[in-house]
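Summary of Year 1 activities. Much of the first year was spent building the evaluation harness for sequence design. The harness presents a backbone, in tokenized form, and records the residue chosen at every position. We chose the following record to illustrate the format because it has been used consistently in internal testing since the harness was completed.
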């Protein structure tokens, strides 16, 4: 598996109460002008726990990020 969830463009989702595990790339990627809320998730044993790029500005709160290769 690559990313668990990939958010792009001007999307603004609410991503909460999920477990992202064993994703080879990222548990969550947020790119371009995306925003949204990422709360109360577990990112365990992925490439990057959460990857934010470009002009993306998600609100991150109360996430557990453990045993990932990076971030």
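For this record, the design step produced the sequence shown next.
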């Amino acid at each position: 598996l690559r990313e668990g969830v990939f958010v792009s463009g001007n999307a603004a989702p609410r991503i909460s109460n999920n477990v992202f595990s064993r994703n080879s790339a990222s548990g969550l990627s947020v790119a371009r002008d995306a925003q949204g809320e990422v709360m109360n998730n577990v990112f365990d044993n992925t490439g990057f726990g959460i990857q934010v790029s470009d002009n993306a500005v998600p609100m991150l709160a109360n996430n557990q990020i453990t045993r990932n290769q990076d971030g």
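The beta strands are 5-7, 14-16, 19-21, 26-30, 37-39, 42-44, 48-52, 59-61, 64-66. Quantitative recovery figures across the full test set are reported in Table 2.
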